[in-house]
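Internal ticket - ligand job 540, flavin-adenine dinucleotide:
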Amino acid sequence: MERYDFLVIGGGIAGLTYALKVANYGTVAVLFKKSVEDSNTSWAQGGIAAVSTSDDNSALHASDTEIAGVGLCNKSIVDLVVTEGPDRIRELLSIGVKFDTVQNKTGETTFDLHKEGGHSKRRIYHAADATGSEIQKRLLQAVRDHKNIELFSDTSAVDLITTQKIGVEKSQPNRVLGAYVLLPDGGITPFIARTVMVATGGAGKIYLYTSNPDIATGDGIAMCFRAGTPIANMEFFQFHPTCLFHPQAKSFLITEAMRGEGAILKRTNGEEFMHKYHELKELAPRDIVARAIDHEMKIHGEEHVLLDISHLAKDKILEHFPMIHQRCLKFGFDITTGPIPVVPAAHYCCGGVVVDQHARTSIKNLYVAGEAAHTGLHGANRLASNSLLEALVFSHRAAELRISELKTKDKANETLKFNIPQWDPGQAATSDEQVVVTQNWDEIRRAMWNYVGIVRTNKRLARALRRIKNIQSEINEYYWNFIVTSDLLELRNLALIAELVVRCSIARKESRGLHYNLDFPFKDERYLKDTVIDPEWLKL
Ligand SMILES: Cc1cc2nc3c(=O)[nH]c(=O)nc-3n(C[C@H](O)[C@H](O)[C@H](O)COP(=O)(O)OP(=O)(O)OC[C@H]3O[C@@H](n4cnc5c(N)ncnc54)[C@H](O)[C@@H]3O)c2cc1C
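stdout (structure tokens):
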């Protein structure tokens, strides 16, 4: 059994920021499912949005965020994120994060701010096209330098431990006591802590095609839901229109800038199709492009479409897209001479565990920040580059609140007075049928892609729910009979997240933002509210 003051599950931008802020007030354990670099954060390309110039202001940033969110953003949350954002950027700079700079006409050095889709001003700080990797690297360095922080790689949280779960303090509100954790040697041990921060990131792996790395299986959302916290708005999954289609090129995004420079989308027979969907053709908004590609693939039964920029001069292509050119060559495609196969890919999970303005969940001392949280910032669609900012703001707020509580409260009240049971493996044996896990994993991701993807219908959603419930009953049987492995753990979480996405999608009987249902193709103001699922409700 391990004991810490703070247990941080996940070490991307949210978890590392939180760890760094609370470390002066107690011991901190940070868990990483794989290596310490493996996170969505490391992959973030575009940058991080925050107001900094004289022609910009918080009201404009708030308004851009709310327009993207199609009526579902929580206004007070949007306001606090955009107003506190600039301070959080300054903190990143203070730990050594290097954003790109330029010299202006008067020779003064300023930040080279980008403008992205949906932003009315230039406000995106970036480090070339590898902003997330720069942030992850600097945060990691800072946490490694702190004597109170211990890092555990290849270590997965399995489930949260709460007073309710172990049957103590029955007359008190449920509170978190730590988590059962799968260690690299395969053993499961309790990590006990007075405060738990869940910062496990997104859940793109529920879909067959995703821009997310392998760690993004929604573990934190699933764990919190099992422990009793409501989740919200899981129907709003953002899809990126173009990811390279190749078995070995999983997660490789083809930037939208390529369409900006003139790349054309075609069916596999060479036929262009974007003119049928929008007057701006390839330059239509991201959602429309993704939906058009999906539609073409579904009606023609094709596995991918093509993206072609080879009609431009070779020099120009190489000047603008050297990295994409190199990466595609590795998979046998030369963008200067022909088209490349692309598919849309699940990119960002707007929903998550319901938290308040301090990242607090409904369980005492349990916090969630980053992509795993539903704060109310994004509404029905995320504005580009707001997610890194959201993670910073809420990790900071969670840390501040907890630190002030710990300073004022009698700490003795919070120390653990009872024994935490060890993980009980029951009669579980080692499985020799890994194929069951692989098969179910594949089925979930295909069912989600085909039935709960970019364009949904009532029939497809009902079909998906039936499939997922079947798979879940198989997984449950398997889960209790065989020793828990990280694959099995992820499969159980994926299945639950898939179910939550389907249930939220079924509940929203309209089309809004990222949720598009052909049976309810328009917005309906009766649904101008979050889709909240309470675990108690699901048990009925
Ligand atoms: C290709 C790509 C480009 C993007 N570009 C941008 C961008 O330009 N701007 C922007 O704002 N956003 C961008 N995003 C989104 C953004 O990167 C993420 O939303 C953000 O990084 C999430 O941070 P996080 O700390 O919540 O989670 P992550 O960074 O994903 O970290 C999750 C951590 O949790 C750990 N973990 C997961 N499960 C467990 C478990 N069971 N036990 C222990 N540890 C666990 C993982 O190992 C990891 O350390 C992009 C995302 C992708 C995939």
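Auto-summary: The mean pLDDT is 93. The first helix runs from residue 13 to 22.
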